[in-house]
Amino acid sequence: MSGVVICPIHEQVLFTTDVPQHPSSKFSFVPAEKLEITGLINVPEAQAFRLKLLQLSRNFFELLNSSRTYNINFHQFSTFYYQLAELNSLVKGHRVNHAAIAEKLTNYWTIDGLKKLDPSLAPVDKWLRLLFLKQRKAFHPLHHLLVWQSFDESRPTTILEKISKLSDIEVTKSNPVVEIPSKQHQQERQKWLNNCHQNPQKGIKWLRLIGDAGGNYMWLYRHDRNWLQTHSPARLKSNQNHNRIDWSARDFQVLNMLIKLRTETNIELLDTRMTTAWFIKNIDANFNIDKHFKNLYQSKIFIDEHSETVEQFQRRRILATITDLRLKNISLSLWNILRRAGIRKNFVDENMINFIKNNQGNI
Predict the structure, then answer these.
(1) Domain locations in the chain?
(2) Which is nearest to 308 in space by CA: 276, 350, 343?
(3) CB–CB of 355/315 below 8 Å?
(4) 5 pLDDT above the threshold of 70
(5) Between these two residues, 43 and 299, which has the higher pLDDT value?
(6) Which residue pairs, CB below 8 angstroms and at least 24 apart, start in 273-282?
(7) pLDDT at 181 (0 to 100)
(8) Strands 91-92, 95-96: parallel, antiparallel or unpaired by DSSP?
(9) pLDDT per residue over 273-328, tens digit each?
């Protein structure tokens, strides 16, 4: 079980090789130049799903490159997942709605996508229910990252930092803990009471998002939740008519930004493949485009038409290399073109070789 099927740096689907995952000797090392490629890792073709897999790889990359050590016990993980379900309205009474959580996860990743990541991930009930119950064992990092990403949580190191600050003491009937408000508890409680008193007609959502009490609320929610629940205003019913988003206007706005980016980019000098992720990264949109592709019809068509396949990118790099070598009066030999274009020989087929030969004297 790994979960990493796309390179987080080059944004390319990884290859399978003849090197076993568990070698006979732990000291054996096979350099990349000597391994044999056996095929591409099988991933769904949908570009939107590949973006999710790319984000998953980047989350793994962030964890592996973090120098921080987090001291977290099972109780803190249990508390975090209960709060996560509660914040997403997936708790009935005091019980976690496991069916709704499974539906949220599979709607994001799809059963087919989970099976291709690792067959043990489906059905999800085998591990997902245990993750949201009182934890008694460790889980693979992939399980955590799949859930965090489907719940649109923040960066993994930020989440671990948050979990490490939760109370690590479990309160039971046989071992009750008498809570004595600390100085910080008293200060945060008073700030919350002042906010509620100054805004008597406002609800919790308004206080958090507009009334500048978001940080105060989250601190109390994590460290003093019972007190917060008994000292918060009652839920208010909204009578506002929320304006629906004009997706047609947004689509037109995004399309113009994409056209401008494509027009102003010097394609010949671009050494990065123009993928969906490249287009999204290089335009100044104030919302997550990849999450709303179904509403951005024209923009999606434009990106699909102008995104490069691996072969198109290689051919563009080859033409740019031939032009550069000719201007510098450097040898236009096949091996020199491939090396300077950054294309490995074992990735080049006969069609690509013919393409190079046909263009060696035409530019």
Answers:
(1) 15-64, 74-164, 194-235, 247-308, 311-359
(2) 276
(3) yes
(4) yes
(5) 299
(6) 273/11, 273/308, 273/310, 273/313, 274/306, 274/307, 274/308, 274/313, 275/11, 275/307, 275/308, 276/47, 276/50, 276/51, 276/303, 276/307, 277/11, 277/51, 277/54, 279/303, 279/306, 279/307
(7) 72
(8) antiparallel
(9) 888 888 888 888 777 787 888 888 888 899 888 888 888 888 888 788 888 877 87
